[in-house]
Amino acid sequence: MSKSYLSIGFAKKITDLHLFHYENSREFKKIVDSMKLYSSIKSNPEDIFLHTSLFKKYKLKSKISNRENILFYSSGTSGIQSKIYTDRLTRIDQQRSLYNLICSELGFNTKNKPSFYVIDKPSVIEKQKVDAKYAAIKGFSSAAKGMHFLLDEKNNINFDILNKLRGEKNSLVFGFTANTYIYFLRILFERKIVLNNKNITLIHGGGWKKLVSQGVSNEKLKEVAINVFPNVNCKNYYGMIEQTGSIYFECDYGFLHSNDYASVLTRNNNLEKNPFGKEGIIQSISSLPKSYPGHSLLTEDKGIIYGCNTCKCGKAGVYFHLKGRLSKAVVRGCSDVY
Amino acid sequence: MFINKKEDFNKLLLAKDRISSLLKHEDRIISLKKIATEIKKLSLENKNNELLAFFYFLEESINLISTNSEKYFSHTLPRGIVLNIPSSNIPMMPFYTWVPSFLSGNINFIRLSRKSDIKLISKIILLIDKILGKEESKKQIFYRGDIDSDITAEISLNCDLRMIWGNSPTIKEIKRDFPTSACIELNYKNRNSSSLIDSNEYLRMSTTQKRIFLKKYLNDSLSFSFAACSSPQYTFWIGSKKTNIDAQTTFIEDLKAHFNQTDIDEGIIATNNLESFQSFFIDSNNKTFDQLFLLCGRGVALVDIKELINVTDSFLNANSLFVSVETFEEFIKSFPKNIQTLTYSSEIDISFLKDLPRLLNYKCPDRIIPFGDALKFSMTWDGTNFFNILRKKVVIK
Question: A307-321: per-residue pLDDT in tens?
Answer without folding.
Answer: 999 999 999 999 999
